[in-house]
Design goal:
This protein is an all-alpha fold. It has helices at 3-53, 59-111, 119-153. The longest helix is centred in the middle third of the chain and has 53 residues, at 59-111. Residues 23-50 form a coiled coil.
Length: 154
Amino acid sequence: FPTWKRTLARRTRESQMKRFCRAQAIQRRLEEIEVTFRELEQQGTKLEKLLRDENDSLADQHTQWTNQLLYLVQKKNNLMSEESDLMIAVQELKLEEQQCQLDEKLRSYMNKEDALKTPEDEKAEQEILKQLVDVVNKRNILIQLQEEKRLSEL
């Protein structure tokens, strides 16, 4: 087993582990966001009830509750934006994993000598190459989407 193949296999495993760790971190953060959403909803509901029920309360109190409600809405919007970014990251991870798998398949076909390749092998190699280009294009679209989102937030 040549050294370059062992190195390649090790790097593949390392990149898989990195993707796995990133996916776990993203999943944890999405769960945290979900919990925070629920808490914000509860707080917002309480504030709305206070604003509706307390018609005779002081103007300062009314203003304070309104400001708190607006703060909660802003916080929720920020979380929604972060959740959107994380969902894009999840898609990117899936495409990255798919690309690695296709790279590995393509490499196995390309390492085969041309004289030993069957027409089916050549057809499969072309199909994998086509799929690989599609995955790269999808990743490019995600990157463009992230960039447009970042620019619009500025």
